[in-house]
Write a structure and sequence with these properties.
The chain has 15 helices and 15 strands. It has 410 residues and is α/β, with parallel strands linked by helices. The strands form four sheets. The protein has a seven-stranded mixed β-sheet, with helices on both faces. Strands 11-10-12 form a three-stranded antiparallel β-sheet. The radius of gyration is 23 Å and the shape is globular. The chain binds S-adenosylmethionine (SAM) and zinc ion (ZN).
């Protein structure tokens, strides 16, 4: 079978990521102008831009496997040409078997060919089902997976229930969401409908997006007396990613719900406040700093969205690899490691300085100045001009005026 030539019926080419080579649609053949989005034009979905997403998925799965220190099973129910699932089988030590699946028959055929081409037929099976149907068939005890990676078009929400049920106690769930317009508040109704929480178009909307997805997952899992712990999350280009483990038990699921809450935001003075709990108590509707109308995001997850130990494990794994995007991955994980314990939400200097009609100082200068004055201050991977701090919006603005006043410039 290895030498058999696969007739896809459309233009293809071999691409390499990590240690794996697979046959993918030749994207150039499906567009007539550079402005067209090639991945969605091809008969089988393949997006080279998501290599970084897949690299990090490999690292996270390896880090997770190290914590268990035994052989694991994995499932990629929305697999496209199969790059991700095949990479799990080849690049993650301790992966015993992988089930990859796609509803598109052409994707199924291409993924099947890629599995054979990589000599993985014994360990990787390929299915052609609806993802929820497939996951439901693995929902019974002892049939469940150790890890499931949901990488869909748009929102992963339609697959949360079946994923949680098809995961073993302690299992790892990885989620991609590319529906950033709802999650970042451009289409708030769609976000409320899908995620059960209100988004806000703030400068830290990408963090809100992660927290809305995490909140939705926590509430979905809670229905089955299951709790979640977020090990890692990141926001990169047009998507967010979340890595969570689940634990069976009603008590922990109750405790989990205590991590749900709201973030109040004032668009006038940048003041923010957190309110824990699922049920909003009657507020004044006004900003406690400037009296303007206050806006609210949520309910969403106010618990941790990164875990220090897991970040360190991932970093250790990164240093052993030769990925194309290694520098970018180390930069992201380095920033995340430092924001693990930092306050929720961040200030974006451009926004503050715009309001103050001041030039934007270097972000590291602001971090130093905050620390010199006894405040906490952390950079964030969410935004290169973002600063997490326990300083209030008023204190931040005072500090910016001071920095710019004291030196004449910065
Ligand atoms: C974003 S692509 C997957 C990319 C892939 N995970 C990767 O890393 O390269 C989403 C895939 O989901 C498949 N799909 C859409 N709806 C599905 C469903 N209900 N069940 C199974 N697969 C589905 C599409 O055919 C498409 O290949
Ligand atoms: Zn205000």
């Amino acid at each position: 079978m290895k030498d058999e030539i696969f007739k896809a019926g459309f233009p293809t080419e071999i691409m390499q990521e990590g240690k794996v080579k697979v046959l993918v649609p030749k994207l150039r053949a499906f567009v007539t102008s550079p402005s067209e989005y090639a991945p969605s034009k091809a008969p089988v979905f393949y997006n080279p831009v998501m290599e970084l997403n897949r690299d990090i998925a490999v690292l996270a799965l390896q880090a997770y496997q190290r914590t268990l220190n035994r052989e694991i099973s994995a499932c990629e129910p929305l697999a496209g040409c199969g790059f991700r699932g095949i990479r799990f089988a080849v690049e993650v030590e301790g992966v015993k078997n992988v089930v990859i699946n796609d509803i598109n028959v052409k994707a199924f055929q291409l993924a099947s060919y890629n599995v054979q081409m990589n000599g993985l037929s014994e360990r990787v099976s390929v299915e052609n089902e609806d993802a929820n149907f497939l996951l439901s068939s693995y929902g019974a005890p002892r049939k469940r997976f150790d890890a499931i990676d949901i990488d869909p078009f748009g929102s992963p929400v339609p697959y949360l229930d079946s994923s949680v049920r098809a995961l073993r106690n302690g299992g790892l769930l990885a989620l991609t969401a590319t529906d950033m317009a709802p999650l970042c508040g451009v289409h708030p109704k769609a976000c409320i409908r899908k995620y059960g929480g209100k988004p806000l178009r703030t400068e830290y909307c990408h963090e809100l997006a992660v927290r809305l997805l995490a909140g939705c997952l926590a509430m979905t899992a809670a229905k089955y007396d299951i709790s979640i712990s977020i090990l890692f999350s990141h926001s990169t280009s047009h998507y967010i990613r979340l890595y969570a483990t689940i634990k069976h038990g009603a008590k922990k699921a109750d405790e989990n719900i205590r991590n749900m809450g709201y973030i109040y935001h004032c668009f006038k003075c940048f003041h923010r406040e957190l309110a824990k709990g699922l049920f909003l108590t009657n507020g004044s509707g006004k900003c406690s700093e400037c009296g303007s109308k206050i806006n609210v995001a949520g309910p969403l997850w106010l618990g941790k969205i990164f875990d220090r130990r897991f970040c360190e494990l991932m970093e250790k794994e990164t240093n052993q690899r030769t990925f194309k995007h290694i520098k970018k991955i180390l930069k992201i994980s380095g920033l995340i490691k430092n924001e693990v314990e930092a306050p929720i939400t961040y200030y974006v200097l451009d926004k503050l300085c715009d309001a103050l009609t001041l030039p934007v100082p270097p972000v590291r200068r602001v971090v130093e100045a905050l620390r010199e004055r006894g405040f906490q201050a952390f950079l964030t991977h969410f935004n290169s001009r973002g600063v997490r701090s326990n300083a209030s919006a008023i204190e931040m603005k005072e500090l910016l005026r001071e920095i710019l006043g004291s030196s004449g410039k910065f």
